[in-house]
Design goal:
Layout (H helix, E strand, L loop, with lengths): L3 E9 L3 E6 L2 E6 L2 H7 L4 E10 L4 E6 L2 H11 L6 H10 L2 H9 L3 H5 L6 H11 L2 H4 L14 H11 L4 H10 L8 H11 L1
Antiparallel strand pairs: 1-2, 1-4, 2-3, 4-5
Helix pairs in contact: 2-3, 8-9, 8-10, 9-10
GO molecular function, one term: ATP binding
Subcellular location: Cytoplasm
Organism: Flavipsychrobacter stenotrophus
């Protein structure tokens, strides 16, 4: 219903803010990550998600579209509601969450308040590949000095291919390091 709100920040706390836009004051629930982006601002744009419940309409705001998209993906997981999704995104940045999912690091997720082993495993299972697709393959949170085979591996995993299968395909290509990332991905897809 609301894609974003832009206006003057009337009140702000680490979990809630009031935003005046067009003569209307909006109460917006935020994450700590969003708060860190807006803490020193007087005006801002927040990308919003409206949750309509039987007893209330609750508005959530995010500093960027990536965080909002991740929030929405978390909401689609059985057992993860808006409060839990907000706690996850307050405890972990989207990059940290992406890294935990990419490396299947359940321990990082279990450190978040309210996330047990089963929920952590469900998050890893259901978001594997989804969170990673939000970003361009060149900006993944893998180490900054990737080799061409590592970049190709990340891209293949983003395409939904299991990590083991992608690694085997790349190993079968003899001149992998002399190819561009795009050429290596194409050859690996042919080997699969």
């Amino acid at each position: 219903m609301y894609a974003f709100l832009e206006g003057e920040l009337v009140y702000k706390s680490p979990s809630l803010l009031y935003l005046s836009a067009g003569g209307v004051g909006y109460e917006v629930n935020i994450t700590l990550q969003t708060y860190s982006h807006i803490v020193n601002l007087e005006k801002c744009r927040l990308y919003t998600h409206l949750q309509v419940r039987e007893d209330a309409w609750v508005l959530y705001g995010f500093a960027d579209e990536e965080e909002r998209a991740t929030f929405r993906q978390l909401l689609n997981i059985n057992g993860v509601g808006a409060a839990t999704a907000r706690i996850i995104l307050s405890s972990l940045t989207t990059d940290e969450l992406e890294r935990a999912i990419f490396h299947e690091d359940a321990k990082t997720l279990e450190k978040v308040k309210g996330i047990g082993a089963k929920t952590a495993q469900r998050i890893l299972l259901e978001l594997k590949g989804k969170v990673l697709r939000q970003k361009d393959s060149t900006s993944l949170s893998a180490p900054k000095h990737n080799t061409i085979p590592e970049d190709a591996l990340i891209a293949l995993v983003n395409l939904g291919i299991s990590k083991a299968m992608a690694e085997n395909a790349i190993k079968k290509i003899t001149n992998a390091s002399s190819l561009t990332v795009e050429e290596l991905i194409k050859q690996a897809l042919r080997v699969l």
